[in-house]
Design goal:
The complex is a heterodimer of chains A (about 450) and B (about 130). By secondary structure, chain A is an all-alpha fold. Chain A is built from 20 helices and two strands. Classes of the chains: A mainly alpha (about 450), B alpha+beta (about 130).
């Protein structure tokens, strides 16, 4: 007799739980079998079994353990069936015995360990793999996305993505990219590479309806990472940064058009996410080991704290940007600092700061948009128009292009009638709303 | 005697192709083993190696003092070095003769390049100008 609760489990619930535990299961099986593809296929097979069984019998109390056991048994069955598999299995037996010591009692191979997942994170984000492959592997192996879902997030065909993943896994195997947490000395740099991959995933989902799910994937992965590395303040900083950015998403657009920070309906901001983000930022401040992600999170925290654009503590934002620039001296950080300076010292100071970095960011639409807004504020209509036009040429996303077209239209209509402070203030997502990852562009 | 690098090149992704049929593989191995025995007997054989596919390559370079790694081979070429022999030969003609034999045996093109020096730099110092 089926338990009465069984009818409550829908395919989407099963899929959701599977996604949560899939990375853990793949990671554990990579340790057990020493082969990523084998682990990946086995977990995929287990998912097929789970979809059927969990919907009928309910989700087991330890879904990760269930997936690992099911996947492991199926993989071993498959291995036994093929000649090559028998050979591999014998080999793996030797490897497993030697790496676990002779005492079989403490050899609980299929118990998921949090270290497994951490090891896999560092394998997927190894600097010898190109960034796009780091991202693809992370989404596929740790994020539990299907190959087709990963392909869609890259806007490529499923077969192209499948090929790319095969190559990346080939490299891991052939070049022997290690499956381990880096040594203490290498950890800061290697962790940075992991964090940028997660932030890149998040930003790929910004202002892109088709890829919006990547934002929650990134947050989920960052949350898992913070659990795995509770002593790394930068990991916490990244999670806070994502949560605080995410909290404003409901107010960022209206009817498909971008709404600037100054015009956003702050009652639409997600207070739960802000509360969690603020708590993390406070904990980071107490820890006093600042880094780029923590500082960016702190800047976002100041924005989220303000009841209105005018009530924002801009001097604090400027000083946080100063601090950020001292650890991450990129032109994009300087751009955001220049915009914040404008809010404290006025448009003249902002323009001076912008002109100083203009040559470095000549191909970056947000720099030209920020100049356009500042020039308009100064009443220099023609120069503002030229800057906005250049920004529109360079803008990639449809939402940015639409925003800039609107600014250009307003400027043309305004003519000489110059409002004191145009509503269009700064660029599309500037005014410290721009993802700092743009610095990596 | 000089040393020459005979490098075999394979098209992109060829290592991911279907494995050879057993009898073809056996024939192939037979040819290669015979050739290597011939090199060994004539004193030409120095070293050989088979490389993983170019997808497994990593380029390491220095960028203003920072070590930067890039995924993939140096050049995004259609063909990449797949394996090599280092042989002893009196001159290029002798090296080319070996190269022709390797081409026949493995059925892939070979690049022949002479070494300017081999071994540790420390051991070559006394041969350098100025010493």
């Amino acid at each position: 007799m089926a338990p009465p609760a069984a009818t409550h489990w829908r395919a989407t619930d099963v899929e959701h739980v599977f996604r949560e535990v899939s990375g853990q299961a793949v990671a554990t099986l990579v340790r057990v079998f020493g082969d990523i593809t084998l682990a990946e296929d086995a977990v995929q097979d287990a998912f097929v079994v789970a979809t059927d069984r969990w919907q009928r019998d309910g989700i087991p109390p330890n879904p990760a353990g269930w997936i690992v056991t099911t996947a492991r048994n199926r993989a071993i069955d498959d291995l036994r069936r093929s000649a090559r598999g028998r050979e591999l299995h014998a080999q793996l037996g030797v490897v497993a015995r030697t790496s676990h010591g002779p005492d079989a009692a403490d050899w609980e191979e299929d118990v998921p360990m949090s270290d497994d997942q951490l090891r896999l994170v560092f394998t997927c984000c190894h600097p010898a793999l190109r960034t796009e492959n780091q991202v693809a592997l992370t989404l596929r192996l740790l994020g539990g996305l299907s190959v087709d879902e990963v392909a869609r997030s890259f806007l490529v065909s499923e077969s192209a993505m499948a090929k790319r993943l095969v190559r990346a896994k080939y490299k891991i195997k052939a070049a022997k990219i290690p499956y381990r947490v880096p040594a203490e000395a290498d950890l800061p740099e290697r962790l940075r590479s992991v964090l940028s991959v997660l932030y890149l995933i998040y930003n790929t989902g910004v202002d892109d309806a088709e890829r919006a799910a990547l934002r929650s994937d990134a947050i989920r992965l960052a949350r898992a990472l913070v659990e795995l590395m509770p002593d790394e303040p930068e990991a916490a900083g990244l999670l806070a940064l994502m949560l605080l950015s995410e909290s404003r998403v409901p107010a960022r657009t209206a009817g498909g058009a971008l709404v600037l920070l100054r015009d956003q309906d702050r009652t639409k901001w997600d207070r739960t996410m802000i509360a969690e983000g603020h708590a993390i930022v406070r904990a980071c401040i107490r820890r006093d080991q600042p880094g780029p992600f923590q500082l960016q999170a702190a800047i976002q925290a100041v924005h989220c704290e303000a009841g209105s654009f005018e009530a924002t503590d801009w001097s604090q934002i400027v000083s946080l940007y100063e601090h950020l620039f001292s650890v991450m001296p990129t032109p994009v950080v300087a751009l955001n600092r220049a915009i914040a300076i404008g809010e404290v010292e006025g448009p003249g100071a902002a323009l001076t700061a912008l002109d100083a970095i203009a040559p470095d960011l000549d191909n970056y639409h947000l720099m030209h948009a920020a100049r356009g807004a500042t020039l308009r504020w100064l009443g220099q209509q023609d120069a503002a128009l030229a800057a906005y036009e250049r920004a529109a040429e360079l803008a990639v996303t449809e939402i940015d292009q639409r925003f800039l077209a609107q600014q250009i239209k307003e400027l043309a209509e305004d003519g000489a009638l110059m409002p004191h402070r145009p509503g269009g203030s700064t660029g599309p997502s500037t005014a410290t709303d721009a993802p700092e990852s743009a610095a990596n562009q | 005697m000089s040393q020459y690098l005979l490098s075999a090149h394979a098209g992109q992704g060829q290592d991911h192709r279907e494995p050879m049929a057993p009898e073809i593989m056996q024939e192939f191995m037979g040819r290669v083993v015979a050739l290597e025995a011939e090199m060994e007997a004539s004193g030409a054989f120095a070293f050989s190696g088979r490389l993983a596919d170019a997808d497994a390559a990593t380029v390491v370079r220095s960028n203003e003092g920072d070590i930067v790694m890039t995924d993939g081979p140096f050049v995004e070429a259609k063909e990449h070095i797949a394996g090599f022999y280092i042989i002893e030969a009196d001159d290029l003609d002798a090296a080319l003769a070996w190269a022709s034999k390797v081409v026949d045996a493995i059925g892939a093109p070979i690049e022949v390049r002479p070494f300017v020096a081999t071994g540790k730099v420390a051991d070559q110092m006394h041969e350098m100008p100025g010493n």
